[in-house]
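Hi support team,

I submitted a single chain yesterday and got back a structure, but I'm not sure I'm reading the token output correctly. Could someone confirm the output below corresponds to the sequence I sent? I've pasted both exactly as they appear in my results page.

Thanks,
R.
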Amino acid sequence: MTARTSDSSLARTVSLSQRRLGTARKHDDMTTEIQRVNPGQLAERSNQHWPALREAGKIDRLNFTDAIQAFVDYVDGEGEGSTRPDLAYSNFTRSVYAAFGLNAKQREALMNGEKKSRDLFDLMELRYLQMAESTAAAIIFQGIAAKATRKSIKATVKNECGQIAAAHRRLSKGLFKGQGND
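Hi R., thanks for writing in. Yes, this is the structure output for that exact sequence:
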């Protein structure tokens, strides 16, 4: 069984993630600008914003992997530790990507650093995936801080990422299609 995570180890991981989040705030202005753009303008501006959003996503991804590492080291109040730490990264990644319908081959390419599937995403798809990863990281860190069970942390990550993906699907299909022009 894995030894309990020391408070200093967890604090270092959280501190590192907070520094990365501070760097990510540099991209807040760009994200706010994207949110104010209507879908027609989004296509025109995507060439300008996509590289910055992609770079911000790298910070989100690092925060997500830090959270996964903290989860690997975490032993919950019921004494449950990671039984397969070698699978934690792939299992959490699968939970996030499966919600978006990414198949095993696409996930494998992402995890092996081959041709980045993310490079093929449009601006909205990329932002929703980053939102899911950021949410998953926050859930993991909050779950650990609250001394939640490992099982409940995993279930919450899966559920919340599913909700984010569902919102993306609804938006992609067009929320107002079929309604009259009032």
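A quick pointer for reading it: Residues 118 and 126 are 7 Å apart (CA to CA). Let us know if anything else looks off.

Best,
Support desk
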